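Structure first, sequence second, as always.
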């Protein structure tokens, strides 16, 4: 790359990072190296590659040129030391926790996180002696109060899935560091176009790239972006032994999606602001949670640490679960489906879908009410979206 990408704007970075012209052929689109293994010229070269004396590829679980391009691209967008691509967002979380915690270690996590992220910490890691405490991380004092001597990791999702609560990354980084712990931020909802947690003090960023980074609802993928070389080396060791790595074709598709990341995120956000205001004014809507609305409790914090409120929101229809279901059953343009961050609008019911694996009490105390509806606004024409909301709400 002729330019130092770190000095260029985010639009430019999302278009050019990881997209260098192929030196062998001049191909402008990145080549797809769909191979599991790489030939050595001699035994001596194979030994030098394994010992690390010589740079170069060995075996795709340990590294692949197409996957490496994607890792570099996302690291450039997030301002990290490098990237570790994973087969899913869940693999990004589990690989990081596996790499960073020891038996007896403790995690402090946001209470409102993607349902399975909470379940894997609460149930699966606990089986190996790594325990977690869940707190409302929009309350910085609650995070401080949950810290213990054995706390090694603070895990924050902001904005949170599906409540859209916003946590103060800088303040929580200071608390974590004062206790000798690391801060990992799940930046899936914002994307690096709207929020860069490493610049706010986070040690690790993770993504479900299934969402905005890929953006086309056709790939499941994840990424870990450590802030420092030391953390990159530490997590990489567990990454390729655990094997939760990425296939080259998956990486190629996400590289393609990344080129329009900034355009998609901004277009969806423009629509989302209009939808949020429209829903909030609708007589059948009880409340709307969207960080761009004056009614959002952390609106000022969101404006300070983010470059925009994004395109996810949650709301509740008057009449609770039944009324929400009546609306969801009648959407026409929007699609009733889980996932988010794609070019199309997706709407779902967390209590019975994405967060159904959480016990009801934990769900309610995390602010995920029975009637909460989550919508990921896409890039359709705003008039068409509002018309679909209107006709669906008429069935309530
Ligand atoms: N982190 C966040 C914030 C997520 O929303 C998800 C998935 C994950 C991690 C896990 O990523 P995955 O393994 O699925 O790539 N969220 C989903 C959701 O809200 N609906 O369907 C999946």
């Amino acid at each position: 790359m002729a330019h130092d990408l770190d000095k260029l704007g985010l639009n430019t970075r999302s278009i050019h990072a990881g997209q260098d012209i192929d030196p062998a052929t001049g191909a402008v689109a990145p080549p797809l190296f769909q191979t599991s293994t790489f030939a050595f010229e001699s035994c001596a070269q194979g030994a030098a590659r394994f010992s690390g004396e010589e740079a170069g590829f060995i075996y795709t679980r340990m590294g692949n040129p197409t996957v490496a391009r994607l890792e570099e691209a996302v690291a450039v967008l997030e301002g990290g030391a490098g990237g570790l691509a994973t087969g899913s967002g869940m693999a990004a979380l589990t690989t990081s926790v596996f790499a960073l915690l020891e038996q007896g270690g403790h995690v402090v996590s946001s209470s409102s996180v993607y349902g399975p992220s909470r379940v894997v910490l609460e149930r699966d890691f606990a089986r190996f002696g790594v325990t977690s405490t869940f707190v409302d991380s929009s309350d910085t004092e609650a995070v401080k109060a949950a810290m213990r001597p054995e706390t090694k990791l603070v895990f924050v999702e902001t904005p949170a899935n599906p409540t859209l609560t916003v946590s103060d990354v800088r303040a929580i980084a200071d608390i974590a560091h004062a206790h000798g712990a690391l801060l990992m931020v799940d930046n899936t909802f914002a994307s690096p176009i709207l929020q860069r947690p490493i610049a706010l003090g986070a040690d690790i960023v993770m993504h479900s790239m299934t969402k905005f980074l890929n953006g086309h609802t056709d790939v499941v993928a994840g990424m870990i972006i450590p802030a420092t070389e030391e953390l990159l080396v530490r997590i990489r060791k567990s990454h390729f032994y655990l094997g939760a790595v990425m296939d080259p074709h998956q990486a190629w598709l996400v590289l393609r999606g990344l080129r329009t990341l900034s355009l998609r995120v901004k277009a969806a956000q423009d629509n989302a602001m209009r939808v949020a205001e429209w829903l909030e004014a609708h007589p059948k809507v009880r409340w709307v949670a969207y960080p761009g609305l004056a009614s959002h409790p952390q609106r000022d914090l969101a404006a300070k640490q983010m470059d925009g409120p994004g395109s996810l929101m949650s709301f509740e229809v008057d009449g609770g679960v039944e009324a929400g279901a009546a609306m969801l059953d009648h959407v026409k343009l929007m699609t009733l489906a889980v996932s988010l961050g794609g070019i199309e609008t997706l709407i779902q019911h967390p209590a019975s879908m994405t967060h159904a694996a959480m016990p009801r009490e934990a769900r309610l105390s995390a602010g995920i009410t029975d009637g909460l509806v989550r919508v990921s606004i896409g890039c359709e024409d705003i008039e068409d979206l509002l018309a679909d909301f209107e006709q669906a709400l008429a069935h309530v």
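Margin note: Residues 88-90, 114, 117, 157, 161, 186, 188-189, 208, 210, 220, 222, 338-340, 354 surround LCS (CB under 6 Å).
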